[in-house]
Amino acid sequence: MTYSVTLDADKCKGCTVCVRQCPTEAIRVRGGRALIIPGRCIDCGRCILDCPHHAKRAVCDPLERMEDFRYTVALPAPSLYGQFRNLDDIAIVLGGLTEMGFDAVYEVARAAEEMSAHALAKRGLSEKAPVISTACPACVRLICQRFPRLIPHLAPEIEPVELAALAARAEAVRKTGLKPNEIGVFFITPCPAKMTSAHSPLGLSEPVLDGAFSMAEIYLKLLPAMKRAAESGAASQTSGLTGVGWAVSGGESTVLRRLRTIAADEIPNVIAVLEAIEDGKLPEVDFVEVSACTQGCVGGCLTVENPYVSKMRVRTLMKSLPDTLATRLRDGEPGTPPVRDLPLKYAPADILDGDMAKAIEKRRVMEALLERLPGLNCSSCGAPSCHALAEDVARGIANESDCVFLMRENMSEGDYLPPPFRRS
Predict the structure, then answer these.
(1) Domain 353-424 falls in which CATH fold?
(2) How far is the C-alpha of 282 from the C-alpha of 275, rounded, in Å?
(3) Where does 30-189 have alpha helices with state H?
(4) pLDDT tens digits, residue range 161-204?
């Protein structure tokens, strides 16, 4: 598994802000620098937004990757449309992407709309209820890491961007006559989780994308290109209000009017909903839409606009868009989106040791230390909580003395004083 969120050690001050804010306790501060624990990180990007020193960043593909292919296709996320002030025509954004150098554009909103049409045509959900959306890979990773009993509840279909990638490549092959590997299909991503998913897709045996570009990087180059596109007026949109609505929390479940749905955004809120489902407290819910970012994908850390402003812009734009979903349903039964070809598996991050006997002994060490720790969860030790410090000590990657309270207690007993001053 690869990860997109990384640390710039030269900028890190060891302030523990990221340690306290990470929703999966994936960060520690050791030796005055932050460390990211790969097995716990879900690439939600919370640390990128919160770090006051800009020491966290997302590794995305460079735009030069386009030069590796004879023909390139851009897949703009619906959240891209919410980044521009007074945008009243999606075609200007699409035209701007071709002005930037892409040979073609395929809207992810179009694929999202096809998935909405399929969900609506089913008039119900045959999978284990409640069905949980898989549109957010960070949330899928979270479920695989902490909620194994909910894995069977995850929708079997691939992500909209993956459906868009398959359709875009097939369309480009028909149009150009080129081989599939000569065509580069790139997603314009609002978050690092989808950047990671582009290269290491969850539930797919091989990637269907050739890479992903940061929305923030694309934005600066897209502004002048959009101005040129507005003058030429060459591009045209293919998506409607339903597909664009997937950019915000609640947009995916809007079409499921006959079902009882929940839309949760931000990881702490998502965790609360998942815990309630796992405990059997939400038996009446049919569908759960989850997003790691504030207000949905418009809140991704690779966007440039305030998520609330972006959400307002998306909703304003939707008012002028056609209801192409209704047209799709009227024209005939929508096709069934492809499903994952690999099962999603439980990937626990809290296994103390692969050897059962050693794991039990480490658990004893951990529980004994927890009895002594103050339970303040102050993060002064560089871990997010006393429980996390106890786990780190049991694993051998931290010391009991990292806790300032235990250190002070031991010093008062003379354990840390040099021999001439140590109490007998």
Answers:
(1) 3-methyladenine DNA Glycosylase II; Chain A, domain 3 (1.10.15)
(2) 10
(3) 46-50, 90-100, 108-122, 137-146, 160-176
(4) 999 999 999 999 999 999 999 999 999 999 999 999 999 999 99
